[in-house]
Specification:
215 residues, globular
Length: 215
């Protein structure tokens, strides 16, 4: 009886993978790419530390203040979610908001990569990135429910989303420090510009659903 048990246990991980990926559809891509890119945005983590210390001379107290303002947009997720549900932009409740988030994040990274050279411009760029990331996250959360056809698929999409976030974070763990040391902060910020571009491309696969009129 030991042999069937061993076979079953060894096949379990493969069965889980097949269960998660076997019925994956292109409609999942906007959710997975958004979560992956948010995790991969950690590629700038070490570059930001270098930039704060060496280029801007930011003190620990100032860094704490910046962290507060960067975290603040995330407290408005519910407001952004309601806006996306109730107030479509150009007839779209998801793609339009996702693209707004992409543009804000793109602008923030591009600013850091080029002309941000003072504490105030650095803060403004970081807030743009935070707001853009928050909006993208809100839309991805909504899409993770909308692209699913039943409760089981909702769980599948959400699990895959968490996996994509984890893979994105792990994939840049070592790379973030290596790139910052070899290239310096601004080139790393320029590389990070690719992330919102990837998210914008993924919006092509968002299902086009009819927009219900606001009550």
């Amino acid at each position: 009886m030991a042999e069937p048990t061993e076979t079953t246990s060894s096949a379990a991980p493969g069965g889980l993978v097949r269960r998660l990926l076997g019925s994956m559809r292109l409609a999942y891509l906007p959710v997975l790419v958004t979560y992956f890119c948010y995790g991969a945005s950690g590629i700038t983590s070490i570059a930001l530390l270098y930039f704060q210390k060496d280029a801007l001379g930011i003190t620990p107290a100032e860094a704490a203040g910046i962290a507060f303002w960067v975290a603040l947009p995330w407290s408005t997720k519910m407001v952004a979610g309601v806006a996306s549900d109730v107030y479509p932009i150009l007839g779209s409740r998801r793609v339009s908001y996702m693209l707004v988030g992409v543009l804000l994040t793109f602008a923030g990274y591009a600013w850091l990569a080029t002309t941000a050279s003072s504490k105030s411009t650095y803060l403004a760029a970081m807030v743009l990135i935070a707001v853009g990331s928050m909006v993208q996250d809100v839309v991805a959360d909504a899409l993770s429910v909308e692209v699913a056809r039943n409760e089981e698929e909702i769980k599948q999409v959400q699990t895959l989303g968490r996996m994509a976030l984890l893979v994105g974070s792990i994939s840049v763990g070592y790379l973030s420090g290596w790139l910052a040391g070899v290239l310096g902060p601004r080139p790393v910020f320029a590389i990070a510009v690719v992330l919102p571009v990837l998210v914008s491309v993924s919006t092509w696969f968002v299902p086009r659903l009819p927009v219900a009129p606001a009550p």
